[in-house]
């Protein structure tokens, strides 16, 4: 969850103590209109590129990987997959592969190729850098107006104004990170179910590894399911600009 507050450059000194605050550096995007800025706080991550030789003197650059918009979609699907795999395990007692066998009537050995593809795809999608820049709403980087830090007429009974919160949820960059973790988790979940005995899903694998019975982890289980569902469904702030 991200809350952004812009602060104009300022410096105050009292009794030898110096406090400095710097505003976030932003730049407008040509052609994107007012109210859209690019955060320069993070370097842009370019997708992996390599040259393919087409002839004796002709080469062509090939980009391997997703744009961040595409990866965001894949991450959301992975988050939904993790959440529904946990719900399905509570209902059926089996992991995602076991649940698929129940639905289709096919044994796990019959779908080895599909399982291997899912594992490799999720690992590549989660670990391979993507290209694009995050574009945030301009009001998240507005300089603080002159005067006191807080309007004395704003009380804690107005939490949004009091804490300077404009909304509830992720930025798309944070959501991209959560999606990558979900992709790694989904790949590890499939590997664990394949290697461990008993068609164990994510919950059973945690219990097998830690020795803690699932009955003692219900609050954490409920929180994890709700968190991944919210992260997958919630529309994050900002947009990715492909380059």
Automatic annotation (TrEMBL):
Belongs to the ELIP/psbS family. The keyword S-adenosyl-L-methionine does not apply. It is a multi-pass membrane protein. It comes from Ulva linza. This is Chloroplast photosystem II subunit S. It is found in: Membrane; Plastid, Chloroplast. GO terms for cellular component: chloroplast; membrane. The keyword Lyase does not apply. Keywords: Chloroplast, Membrane, Plastid, Transmembrane, Transmembrane helix. Gene3D superfamilies: Chlorophyll a/b binding protein domain. The gene is psbS. Signal peptide: none annotated. Its main location: membrane.
């Amino acid at each position: 969850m991200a809350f952004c507050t812009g602060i104009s450059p300022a410096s105050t000194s009292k009794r030898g103590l110096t406090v400095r605050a710097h505003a976030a550096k932003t730049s407008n995007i040509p052609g994107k209109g007012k109210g859209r800025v690019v955060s320069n706080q993070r370097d842009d991550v370019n997708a992996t590129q390599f040259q393919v030789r087409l002839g004796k003197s002709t080469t062509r650059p090939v980009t391997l990987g997703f744009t961040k918009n595409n990866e965001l979609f894949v991450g959301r699907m992975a988050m939904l997959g993790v959440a529904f795999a946990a719900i399905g395990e509570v209902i059926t007692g089996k992991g995602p592969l076991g649940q698929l066998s129940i639905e289709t009537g096919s044994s796990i050995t019959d779908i080895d190729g599909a399982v291997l593809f899912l594992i490799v795809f999720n690992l590549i999608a989660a670990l391979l850098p993507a290209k694009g820049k995050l574009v945030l709403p301009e009001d998240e980087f507005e300089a603080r107006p002159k005067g006191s830090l807080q309007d004395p007429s704003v009380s804690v009974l107005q939490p949004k104004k009091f804490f300077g919160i404009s909304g509830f949820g992720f930025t798309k960059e944070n959501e991209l990170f959560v999606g990558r973790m979900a992709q790694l988790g989904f790949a590890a979940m499939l590997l664990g179910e394949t290697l461990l005995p008993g068609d164990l899903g994510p919950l059973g694998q945690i219990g097998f590894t830690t020795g803690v019975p699932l009955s003692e982890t219900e609050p954490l289980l409920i929180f994890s399911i709700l968190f991944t569902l919210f992260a997958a469904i919630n529309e994050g702030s900002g947009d990715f600009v492909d380059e």
